[in-house]
Design a protein that fits this description.
alpha/beta; Rossmann fold; 2 domains; six-stranded parallel sheet; 13 strands
Length: 414
């Protein structure tokens, strides 16, 4: 089948949450379909990776995105009654490129990855149109509004409310909508009220997968190292590590004076870099392979207070057989099977107690880590998740229809 895949951000390299999802979707789909990929590069350094996508795609269009100009366009659109999100990615060059492709290629499927590029799918003719919301951007902005001050809180709240209306409207424009977790699906259905029942759009949960590291990297060390991994210019991650360093780490350090808190992730903000001055805190920055950092940790933490969807950092730690201490916010996108062997705590005191307990019991760390890895091995492969997505494509080869029917039957309750 001919699949047009439109993404708000170039899917390569897969070094952050949304790019992990889009890249692995493209890579897996390319095994059986012809992919045309169109995306934006909001990081100038990512433009060079466009050529590498030809390994999986028939053709590729990656346009540079000037974030300053895009933000100004978005704010202007907000004050005119629209949303920042749509105007941020609105680009006549992309519209023209997609129109040229549509003249020469008969697309069977158009897949728009995230709400920012949903409008590009409209003019392209295809048998099936799928919108992968991933997580709900509207709820993300509303979450930010509750953690910031005026005027940003007002801007975020307006954007969130307007975008929620647009998300419900897109259900009328697409044949299928996918979300990363049952929690996100429930929020969309709840927000749409009766609108979902009146729409022909089918809403399906398509989660994230994770690659299992080698068995040689599994033993939990007696290192007293606590770690956090994530893009460190992303507001929810910055908030999480700052709060942990301010409120939780000093309590842990009082009982475990030789412990270290390592912060791993690309582009640490100024606020994050300043944490490196704190006792027992190490800001590592970007690493080539996350697993190289994970295998030195005794405990992984995800003290999120903002953000949406499935936290890939949690799945990666589980896959590496590391015990995870996380907040309810970080666990919201996970299933009951996922969280069974994790430690959930919300207040600073409870989080500190959970970390201290694990640092003092290596055997408990190892047991929880093994159990968590087992859950990931059974439930979170990319092949399994992309099969759910592929099952929505409509006209398929017989083996795909059978596989898709099996996956849908297994997850009909999602």
């Amino acid at each position: 089948m001919n699949v047009l895949y439109i993404a708000h951000r170039i899917p390569y390299p897969p070094n952050k949450g949304d790019k992990l999802r889009s890249f692995n979707q493209i890579k897996t789909l390319a095994e059986r379909h012809d992919i045309w990929c169109a995306a934006f590069a909001d990081d100038p350094g990512d433009q060079v990776y466009a050529a590498l996508l030809h390994q999986w795609c028939r053709d590729v269009c990656v346009l540079p995105l000037n974030r300053t100009w895009a933000t100004l366009k978005g704010l202007w659109n907000l004050f005119r009654g629209g949303t920042v999100t749509e105007a941020f990615y609105r680009d006549a060059r992309m519209t023209r490129r997609l129109a040229r492709w549509a003249k020469t290629v008969r697309f069977d499927v158009v897949l728009a990855f995230s709400s920012g590029v949903a409008d590009y799918a409209g003019p392209v003719s295809a048998d099936t149109k799928v919108l992968d919301f991933c997580d709900l951007d509207s709820q993300k902005w509303l979450s930010y509004a509750g953690r910031t001050h005026f005027p940003r809180s007002w801007l975020y709240r307006v954007e969130g409310r307007r975008l929620a209306r647009r998300e419900r409207a897109w259900l009328e424009d697409f044949d299928h909508a996918t979300l990363i977790s049952a929690t996100e699906k429930a929020d969309l259905v709840r927000g749409a009220d009766g609108g979902v029942k009146g729409s022909a759009c089918r809403i399906t949960v398509v989660g994230n997968g994770v690659l299992l590291p080698s068995e040689h990297d599994l033993p939990v060390p007696e290192s007293s190292v606590v770690g956090f991994v994530g893009a460190m210019d992303y507001a929810p991650n910055v908030d999480a590590v700052t709060w942990f360093a301010d409120r939780i780490w000093p309590v842990v350090l009082a009982e475990h004076p030789h412990a270290r808190f390592q912060i791993v992730g690309r582009k640490p903000s100024r606020a994050v870099r300043r944490l490196d001055r704190r006792p027992g805190v190490e800001v590592i920055g970007e690493v080539t392979h996350v697993n190289d950092a994970l295998k030195t940790w005794q405990v992984s933490v995800a003290p999120m207070r903002m953000g949406r969807g499935v936290q890939n950092k949690v799945l990666e730690a589980m896959a590496a057989a590391r015990p995870v201490v996380l907040t309810s916010q970080a666990a919201a996108g996970l299933s009951e099977r996922d969280i069974k062997h994790l430690t959930i705590a919300d207040g600073a005191s409870d989080l500190a107690d959970a970390v201290k307990r694990l640092l003092g019991d290596v055997e408990l760390c190892r047991r929880l880590g093994r159990e968590s890895r087992g859950v990931v091995a059974r439930e979170h492969s990319w092949a399994r998740e992309v099969a759910k997505l592929e099952a929505l494509f409509g006209r398929q080869a017989p083996h795909l229809r059978r596989a898709g029917a099996e996956v849908i039957a297994q997850h009909s309750g999602s």
